[in-house]
Amino acid sequence: MPSLFSSAKDIAKGVRLAADTAVWAGNAVSRHMKGSKSGVCLVCNNLQPYGHEDTFGRPSAAWNQLSDPQQAARKKELASVPTLVLEEIPTKKILESREVDPKTGLPKNNCKYCRLLCEIFDAYFIDEWMSWITEIKNGMPIQVGLMIREGAPLIVNCWNFTYDKWFQNPRVDLELYMDPMPPSPIPGAPTMGPTGSRAADVRSEECMRFMKESINECCKTHPRCATQTNGFVPSRLIFVGGGNDALRLCDALPSEGNIAWAALSHCWGGGKPLSLTKSTLHDLKERIDFSKLPATFQDAITVTQELGLVYVWIDSLCIVQDDKTDWEKEAALMGSVYSRAFIVISGASSPNPSTPYLRPREEDWLPKRFDFPIVPGVNIPITVRQRHLLAAPLDQGLLEPPFTSSWATLKKVGPLYARGWCFQESFLASRILNFAPGAIIYECRTHRKSEDQLPPYPFTTPGTLGEVTPLEQWHMIVKSYTSRQLMFTSEKLPAIAGAATIMPQAGRSRYLAGLWSESLLLDLLWQVMQGRAHLPLMTKEHEENAPTWSWASMNWGVTWNTIQDPQLLTTVVDAQTNVVGANPHGQVSRGTLTLRGRIKYCRLSADYHKNEHWVYYRKGDGGSYSRKQHFRTDGALESWAAPGQNDAFARRSRATTSGNAFEAAAAFFCLAKCHWMKSDHMGLILGISPKFPGCMERVGSISNVPKDWYDTGIDATVTIV
Predict the structure, then answer these.
(1) Cα radius of gyration rounded to whole Å, the chain
(2) Which of 351, 358, 345 lies closest to 441 in space, CA to CA?
(3) Which of 195, 218, 252 marks a domain boundary?
């Protein structure tokens, strides 16, 4: 590890950081010593931002300033308004505000602010399936965070209070405010600011007005958001300009007509809605019966007409569903359809075509009121509602441009945001109307605003884009995309193809099953996100649609570690993929990767009950073993012995059952090294392919490997499939 001041520019800066840390530590000790006497809760700080050692603007710990200088600079920028972010509060301590100490007869944590949090959690997180109280008592990893800022709603981050089968650490954000907001702060009340109103029905006049005003403002004042069709017009569009009785499918539209269209992004599944097939093509060109369309399609037509547009693109009505050639051709154009649409309509709150998004809001999204005692006998009403978008760190969502950590990780709430196809549809859009469960959210290339939000609005302009390399951009895109679900494994690569086509790499590099030839060795260092190491994440269907060295072979999210100044230690001899169909960025049937570098044969042990995965090797003295090294597995593994071989090698499990504890032979293939720690080598853990004799398959990735693994390895050329 580097010394504390290794990244400081000079000794003076190091001294300054040390002084800040000393002051920070002194403030922390002082707060703990005075807390009980001053009446300020050591757990929640009385839900106000003052007097805490971590309040923005006060001297902070040096390790925080060094580990994330950009965040430290942002804290200074925000310090003009009192702001406090507490990322993790002990939930047991919050619950102790209700528990009585048998010795004193008083609450163990006599804090009315913590009791308010308990009441709020009761209202949101107790149902027939789960109780936040039971989860805490059972030792489950429930966490609470606070974002408190003068003039803004108070945000409560609730981690793991709910269950999500896809996201490992599901989070719900709640915001606290007063309605109406008093003209001046009330002594003793939590620090809260005003917020906008949220309509109880999406069909309301105020919602329609919000849509139109947002788009009109964008067209008049946002030059960055102007859509350029560049002569492109989709092969087919639905004409809606003559009213619901004159709907029809149009094709062969002139490209010089400056045609503007809306494009629908929606969830498939559930029933068989009216769609375009070879047999219905002629009839739909004559007339489309509005009453036979599913609710989400009807809503898209209604919104398109409200906005004054005469064309809308809907995938299942504009692509021939039983014509594979047409589907492949149109799928290759989908990036242009969404990126050049005047507006994308996102039916984010609808889980299927039959559920409308222009409807009354569900009760979970309506505000709840709580009485809070500011003094004995005097209560004030506090309003709480669930946020439709998770709050960005530090500034509660006021800055979230593309390719920032919050952009890549924060989850929007709604069924559509868990779908893989939705990612590129929203990523490519120059303007998008999100009909989320909690609010209508308008996003463009300049800012994001929601119907229940007050200005200033979050900027989406990538002001620091130049500091993020194309490699890092792509890794963030894949991380966000792979955290979503797809109905069919064959769509894994096609559903991100549109995003791939607009990357800087596309014009200068070969695209290889989701990786780029110019950064192939670093792209190979992807890791499966934590949470499902005991499950087979590669099925037979995945095996048919992507090689094991591609992240597309996984039915789970992937990510990359940040590597500082990597030194590549391997040569790419050959890399090939078998592209299926007309889209070079779409589906593949298999791929081979031949690398020349250093390999170290080793032993692999896995214990899925303990979630432990290790590799080690026998030393040259003939008896002792090296120290075990932990690696990140690509899901459940199993052992397999090729005919004529005595030793069983590791391989990926394609079965439906979880893996068992086992030991097997494996290999560490080194790809690169970095210079920031002693154990600085990294690469892949390989097993033997049972399908392709003489070839290997990826079973995991590993970093922080000691130098002796590389030094005692042998030079070899391997082919990974």
Answers:
(1) 28
(2) 345
(3) 195
